[in-house]
Amino acid sequence: MLSATVPIAPTPDFWQQAVRLLLREGQPLGQALHSETQAAAALDFSGVQLMVPAFSHAQNFKAALARELRRPFIAPRINTLSGLLAMQVPGESAPPYESERLMQLYAQLREHGWLKKMFSARRNADLLPLAHTLLALSDELTLALLPEIRASAEGEQAAVGRWAQALAQLLEPLAPSAHGMLSDEAALVWQVWKTQLDANDLIVQRFDAMLALAERASLPLVWVSPTAPEPLDAAFLATYGRHQPVRIVTLDWSRQAIAPLHPVYLAAWEELVTGDEGVPPAFLEPASLPDPVPANAPALPLPLLCPAPDLESAAVQSAQIVLRWLEQGKGEIAIVAQDRVTARRLRALLERAEVAVADETGWKLSTTRAAAALAAWNDLVSARGETNALLDLLKSPFVFPDDPDRADRVMRIEARLRRANIAGDWQALQSAFAQAEDGADLACITLLARQAARFGGRKTLAQWCDTQRALCQALGMENALRDDGAGEQCLLMLDDIAAGQGGLEDSFSFAEWRALLNLRLDATSYMPPIKDRRVVMLPLNGARLRRFDAVLVIGADAAHLPSPPQETLFFSNAVRRELNLVTRAERQRQQLRDLTELLCVNPEVVLCWQTHQDGEPNPVSPWIQRLELKLAQQGMAPLRNVHWQAPLRKLQAQRSSMPAPSAPELLPSSLSASGFGSFLACPYQFFAARMLRVAVMDELSDLPEKRDYGSWLHEILHRYHAHLREQATPLAARPALLAGISEEVFQREMQRHPAALAFHARWQKVMPAYLLWANEREADGWQFVFGEQSQSQALSWQDGGIELYGRLDRVDQNAQGERALLDYKTRSVASLRQKVKEEDDHQLAFYGLLAGGAIEHAHYVALELGSDKKTGDAAAPDFLRKQEMLKQQITTTLHQVAQGAPLPANGIESVCQYCDMRGLCRKGAWL
Fold this sequence. Notes:
927 residues, alpha/beta, six-stranded parallel beta sheet, six-stranded mixed beta sheet, 38 helices, 50% helix, 12% strand, elongated
């Protein structure tokens, strides 16, 4: 039986016209309508099979049928092709799972070293995206060539000939030197396709099921589609048409249909139609011809433009447009997300306004928090315990969710690691927490290290899935993932990969497993549950054959409309044309038709885009530019711009002033030298940092800092002088002793930070000069007593007091019993001698107070070479008097703070320039 096409122009009443045409006499639905036996009864259309692109279109058809008949009826059997195939009895052999198919091909590709060289792959895992691309190309070739191969015995030879012709066209304009590489690529694609084209291929099985369904056809078929049938669908319809009548209802993009509808669109976009396109009149039955468009039909409204200067402005403007539409009572609003980044920001703004967005496109599963937790673990294993990766994992809400102390624990772990500047490594991490007050912190790190050790070696896919699931249970992630929609989908994906191993017995490394998991997370879409469909977000092709009250297109710029082309390997347009694959021009023309249908069908359409991106102009889509040009040429009004301001709120300005808080109840119970230095530099800084305890996290650095160098020298010198105190060492043996201790400390640190080599070389230059100074000091009668010792001393005043605390670098004593305090500084002796002359230098005096006044002398010791290539010390003048002055100053000022004295933000600019508390005092706002 001959199949007939029912073309309908893209108009708002497409479904109504389709119903009217199908109800005419001689059409599938018309037979039931004109049957005399059902004149008084409910009309029964169940003897007709209707296939629609998506289930949402079924509601549109039934609503149009109800409006046309205005009487009870039994609807046709409506389904999608995929839904109808799912109802059939499955075949004897199930197709392989996607993971099994992908990894089987990958296992074969990694055996060929020349492939890594050809595609610049540094490791085997880099070939996994290539395997994914090859399978996508293979599937595309199967969809295009399978019907031709099955059509006749010569079909396969014809496909081979077409492939050879396509390759010849590709190589003809190129230099002979490029032929070899492209021929190798072509052979690879062709070989992969031939190996995939067997009875177990999913597309082959689907095509066989389609043909079997068509051979058993028992009902007339109405096929509704906005586009021409694909090769597999065309073969199905041809087979079906040999047994039952087939009517193909589709959009009519012929010149005769578009010109009366809206001549401006046709004039601006002539590629909407081609000279030979359109259904030949002889192929249309007389009853199939649609009603002509009335001459006085009202012109369809043109789109509105909403240019925005940047992403945030585009999202805010779009949100205002949607909210205004809702206020106007519009109940079906569509957001066409050409620019997914701006669309995501728009969705966040609408959800903040408590407007739900039904996302029909979905997001990549890899962009969800649940997938980020799995990826964070794999990043941590790959980085071998790198600190930033560890913190990213611990901050995931899916990790240890049942731990009541979780937030505090993560804060403690982060603070310790940043303070110690530990870049990573599992052993270093566990060593850092060996002396932690809370043993649970060490247990947490140990658990992670033990789990990471399980992710070594080579495993099958099922074993990797078991290892990943065991990790989820060990970290308490299992239940948290199950309670999250995206998390549940991640767990199901792991089960799918494990079940899909099939006969694949190859083993894979962790890098290969990680690449597979990332690939699957990136290729899987996550669709949040839809509760409210007043506002839907969809792609441009998702709006086909649908009508909305208003449509907002996000991303109507040249970068997103039309969508950028994606050519794979050597599959250029010339090759695609020869192989009967969709070319870039065909893809863009279909997208332009989708846009035209959107404009013709919907009463209000707004096109929004960013006029600037990254500081560069971002012009509107060339399609819109051509439309504006055509309007100007025909003397018509230009497209109108819209700009809706957000509601304005009047705020009463309050003049800022210097903050000067008073908080006697927050006075700390202890005080260090640096803490009192903070008080002297700026009382407000002391208030924020020491009283409110607002702390800024230290930044992790891959390179050791000067403070690290200082701590290493403190350890070296303390061990050196303690050895001299315990064991008499000749002067000749001391350089070797100091060098040995230094080498031991720096070798340990260079294993953690190789860049410590620079500090090692720096210290080696200083050691001879330091030994010379230290031996001379010993010859003057000074002997090392103790070093690196914590001290504290209480100061009191009326109704209060405070405890001073700190660590003394070194204390020496001479034969007369006098003691001297030495404080190491990685500075030259000239700068230290200048420092002790400054009246506001209180560090040595503070350390003297810690010793309870039992120290008569104090010195800064230089651990850097001066211009004379020597080190030395800088003695503090009048040390005992300075201690008494400092004691009186601390007692007086802190007593005033305890009595409620204000703490103003009066630091000088040199202090404020690098102050971490400047964001609290907001000095720039009131000064």
